Amino acid sequence: MLFPKANSKGAFYGMLFGFVCTTSLVVPSKYFQLKGLIKYPTTLLSTTGCSSFNVTTDAFSTLANISAITVDSVQPSSIFKISFYYYPLFGAIATVIFGLVVSYMSKETFLVDRDLISPVAQFCLPEESGRNEEECSDGEEASHILDETKC
Length: 151
Description:
The protein is mostly helical. The protein has 3 helices and no strands.
């Protein structure tokens, strides 16, 4: 787990917010593509006019023949022109940020075992008060993380 303060409310509302954000990005983008306001250049698959001696000249002349995209009076925002590969990244970032905000605002506190938290995120955990595992005798369990009075 990367975020020790995350809770079920934050996860639920973060998931809803990420879904709404991703949907509000995907649906208008596909609408603009359907209306022809966003056009992606296609790759030429034909080899007509290509010679084996001067391939680069023919390729550049073929690119020069491609007509330019006309500029309409209504242009979609640049956020709708991003590649569909970035949609999951956008949704994941929105989910994590909003979920953490809701988790911190809900103020549900509970102790988390340090072994369950990634070493990268252990700086988020509060300092342990009490004795270390080394101070416990051999017969006792190291359950002082959940109940600091034992050990």
